[in-house]
Amino acid sequence: MSLFINLPGWQVESLGVFDPSFISRGFLVIEMKVEGLTLDPLTNMPIIILKDLSGTRALPIWVGFFEANAIALEIEKISTPRPMTHDLMKNMIFGLNAQVNHILVNDLKENTFYAVISLICGGNTFNIDSRPSDAIALALRVNAPIFVEEKVINAAKSLDLPTQDANKDNPDDKRQWKDWIENIKPQDFGSL
């Protein structure tokens, strides 16, 4: 069974009920969801774990503590006495009668992930440059789908992985990290 979805500026086709792969503008994009948060064992930096809907692929994205906190608050449905930045963004979008169509993690350059937020307002579509952590925090708040270009998932397998001490170039540590990235499974992080 094929499902065709028309997004402004995109021609997207689901290749099957259980196949979360989509073709858009010549790029293969995969719908993913937030599996959870974890800490990098070497640097103690937070990592967002995205997994595809079939549970066969995972993508770790290193983020800062504030960004991880914003995501964790929404995952746990913890409300704060005053709106946090992403809550404010959500309120502004809804107040302008706009909606977040989706977010797309679309690039990885020099160990930095890039994303866009697709926003529909007044019949127009706007693609807004964003850090993936902000885009994901917003997507969680507005229940927007999260897509990742397949080239990003493939490139993440060859990241220059962080080390505890930037001055040390221990080949064993790098190999250990590359093995971890290549073999990471969503179930390694439990369920939400």
Description:
The chain has 192 residues and is α+β, with helices and mostly antiparallel strands. It has one domain: Bifunctional nuclease domain, CATH 3.10.690.10. It is built from 5 helices and 10 strands; from the N terminus they run ββββββααβββαβαα. It has helices spanning 65-75, 85-95, 132-142, 150-156, 171-183, and strands at residues 3-7, 10-16, 19-24, 27-39, 46-52, 58-62, 99-109, 112-121, 124-130, 146-149. Strands 1, 2, 3, 4, 5, 6, 7, 8, 9 and 10 form a 10-stranded mixed beta sheet that branches. The longest helix is centred in the last third of the chain and has 13 residues, at 171-183. The protein starts with a strand and ends in a 9-residue tail after the last helix. The model is unreliable at 1-24 (pLDDT under 50).
Helix content: 25-40%
Largest beta sheet, briefly? 10 strands, mixed
The H-and-E topology, N to C, reads as EEEEEEHHEEEHEHH
Principal-axes geometry comes out as globular
